[in-house]
TrEMBL record:
<dbReference type="GO" id="GO:0097519">
    <property type="term" value="C:DNA recombinase complex"/>
</dbReference>
<dbReference type="GO" id="GO:0006325">
    <property type="term" value="P:chromatin organization"/>
</dbReference>
<dbReference type="GO" id="GO:0005634">
    <property type="term" value="C:nucleus"/>
</dbReference>
<keyword id="KW-0863">Zinc-finger</keyword>
<protein>
    <recommendedName>
        <fullName>V(D)J recombination-activating protein 2</fullName>
    </recommendedName>
</protein>
<keyword id="KW-0156">Chromatin regulator</keyword>
<keyword id="KW-0479">Metal-binding</keyword>
<dbReference type="InterPro" id="IPR011043">
    <property type="entry name" value="Gal_Oxase/kelch_b-propeller"/>
</dbReference>
<dbReference type="GO" id="GO:0008270">
    <property type="term" value="F:zinc ion binding"/>
</dbReference>
<comment type="similarity">
    <text>Belongs to the RAG2 family.</text>
</comment>
<dbReference type="InterPro" id="IPR015915">
    <property type="entry name" value="Kelch-typ_b-propeller"/>
</dbReference>
<dbReference type="GO" id="GO:0033151">
    <property type="term" value="P:V(D)J recombination"/>
</dbReference>
<keyword id="KW-0862">Zinc</keyword>
<dbReference type="Pfam" id="PF03089">
    <property type="entry name" value="RAG2"/>
</dbReference>
<dbReference type="InterPro" id="IPR004321">
    <property type="entry name" value="RAG2"/>
</dbReference>
<keyword id="KW-0233">DNA recombination</keyword>
<dbReference type="GO" id="GO:0043565">
    <property type="term" value="F:sequence-specific DNA binding"/>
</dbReference>
Length: 250
């Protein structure tokens, strides 16, 4: 086991392992450390045992080689499954500007990460980056939904342009015996949102709550996302009766 620092804005996802002991695993990547530094580490947390109400976790740090994603926060990591194999997919986020460009006034200034897709093989600890022409902007605090070999990227914030475009991308990962194939399709019907909460309600349905649609304008609308085959449908759901605390908080 290893020490897991209390990270802010890391990317997290669940991982279905093939062994009985790997049924419940959680992948954690990046984030801000308590010293306000950015982490490039990746951790695998698994449930060792459950005794009565006590749950024991094991945390392991994974070393990566190849095209290692730079330290970042506000990004996403998801697991895709294809042809009996699995890969982690890292996208987006923000990172500190390069040290050569730093000044005293801008020492902790951040910039969008390049819009690269990273495939991470957790078994062998290697990472490969892909440049897809459909992904033009580095996005942070977007919503990502993974299902089998496909990931959907919704919304997000572009720091360079200070916009929250109504993006909707479908990224498909094929894992044959040879090199992986990654392709991206731009879909209509996206939504403008950043920093939202995503909850899965059943195997084919998700709910998006909260977030921002403008810099100082919270998003009070909730959405239901339905997946069926290769189709994704996003529709508004009945708005809850928000309490005053929620309406006036950040």
């Amino acid at each position: 086991s290893c020490y897991l620092p209390p990270l802010r804005y890391p990317a997290t996802c669940t991982f279905k392992g093939s062994l009985e002991s790997e049924k419940q695993q959680y992948i954690i990547h990046g984030g801000k450390t308590p010293n306000n530094e950015l982490s490039d580490k990746i951790y695998v947390m698994s449930v060792v045992c459950k005794n009565n109400k006590k749950v024991t976790f094991r945390c392991t740090e994974k070393d990566l080689v190849g095209d290692v994603p730079e330290a970042r926060y506000g990004h996403s990591i998801d697991m895709v499954y294809s042809r009996g194999k699995s890969m982690g997919v890292v996208f987006g986020g923000r990172s500190y500007i390069p040290s050569a460009q730093r000044t005293t006034e801008k020492w902790n200034s951040v910039a969008d990460c390049l819009p690269h897709i990273f495939l991470v093989d957790l078994e062998f600890g290697c990472s490969t980056s892909y440049i897809l022409p459909e992904l033009q902007d580095g996005l942070s605090f977007h919503v990502s939904i993974a299902r089998n070999d496909t990931i959907y990227i919704l919304g997000g914030h572009s720091l360079a342009n200070n916009i929250r475009p109504a993006n909707l991308y479908r990224i498909r990962v094929d894992l044959p015996l040879g090199s992986p194939a990654v392709n991206c399709t731009v879909l209509p019907g996206g939504i403008s949102v950043s920093s939202a909460i995503l909850t899965q309600t059943n195997s084919d349905e998700f709910v998006i709550v909260g977030g921002y649609q403008l810099e100082n304008q919270k998003r009070m609308v909730c959405n239901i996302i339905s997946l069926e085959g290769n189709k994704i449908e996003i529709r508004e759901m009945e708005t809850p009766d928000w309490t005053p605390d929620i309406k006036h908080s950040k």
